[in-house]
Design goal:
The chain is an alpha+beta fold. The chain has two domains: 115 residues, Jelly Rolls (Sandwich); 58 residues, Winged helix-like DNA-binding domain superfamily/Winged helix DNA-binding domain (Arc Repressor Mutant, subunit A, Orthogonal Bundle). The protein is 35% helix and 29% strand. The chain is built from five helices and ten strands. The strands form three sheets. A four-stranded antiparallel β-sheet has the order 1-8-3-6. Helix 1 crosses helix 2 and helix 4 packs across helix 5. The chain is elongated. It starts with 8 loop residues before the first strand and ends in a 5-residue tail after the last strand. 22% of the residues are buried.
């Protein structure tokens, strides 16, 4: 297994607000987030920002870069973050030479496809209140309401209105600023 001749993983630290990579740059690595919060942003033709992924501690991101020439989004640290930069060439060799690594990587990608399909299904719901409800049940509210709004394709105003309606209906309980809990006796 000669893929270990060059270090595959290098630890890097980034401050909040810094870019790890930008859309259109040549792909050189995928990443594992040891601590912090990183968002992957893409912009629509009209200039609207979409959050395509929220990476949290203990997760990988930019996995598709192993098979791409350029990054398809921006990766921006939302907090000070510690990452492992996983060299594209080294990871590629590991996938080619180690069936166990390939199988684990494939399972991880399959799980992500399931989550993205769930996100697409939720975004297809026309009622903003029902879309917010389904996204909450799917566990998509992990950061700010602004991030949550972008993730499910609604304005933050529509999300706030929907959250207030769900609280009034007894389906949610507000537990703090931007924090909600699904009630146990859900009507």
């Amino acid at each position: 297994m000669n893929y270990l001749a060059k270090p595959v993983a290098t630890q890097i630290n980034r401050e909040s607000g810094s870019y790890i990579f930008r859309q259109g740059e040549p792909c050189s690595a995928m990443y594992y987030l040891k601590s912090g919060h990183v968002q992957l942003h893409r912009y629509t033709m009209s200039g609207a920002q979409l959050i395509v992924h929220n990476a949290t501690a203990g997760t990988f991101f930019a996995e598709a870069s192993i098979f791409s020439d350029t990054y398809h989004c921006d990766a921006i640290c939302q907090t000070d973050s510690c990452l492992l930069r996983l060299d594209k060439t080294g990871i590629g060799k590991m996938l080619e030479e180690d069936a166990g690594v390939s199988m684990s990587f494939s399972k991880m990608l399959a799980r992500q496809v399931q989550i993205y399909r769930q996100q697409v299904e939720i975004m297809a719901i026309k009622s903003s209140q029902e879309r917010v409800w389904q996204a909450l049940n799917a566990g998509f509210l992990k950061g700010s309401i602004m991030d949550f709004s972008a993730m499910i394709g609604l304005t933050h105003e529509a999300v706030y209105r929907s959250l207030a309606q769900l609280v009034r209906a007894g389906r949610l309980m507000k537990t703090g600023r931007g924090q909600y809990e699904i009630t146990k006796s859900n009507p």
